[in-house]
Input
Amino acid sequence: MKSHERLHYMDNIRAIALMLGIIYHASLAYSPFMANIWFTADSKNHAIFDTLSHWLHLFRMPLSFIIAGFFAGHLIEKKGIKSFSSHRLKRLVLPL
Output
């Protein structure tokens, strides 16, 4: 893939995965499994939220890692490994 134009469909998939993350974390507050762990848990919980959170987490996190790998490969192809490493150091290591 030598074209460096914006891949809008990948941006849309990434946005959907992020929005599902909001639903996932919101469902943990109503999950009976997380009632003793989640500090904002509601006393009115239901097992459907356990099912929802487990189902969302099954594909949302792997999808996020696949998308991150895709864009990392895209960035390496576009700028090279040295620039990619420098970019990662600035974005990840420096804030830590």
Observations:
- The radius of gyration is 18 Å.
- Residues 8-93 form one domain.
- Residues 63 and 96 are 25 Å apart (CA to CA).
- Helices lie at 8-28, 47-79, 81-93.
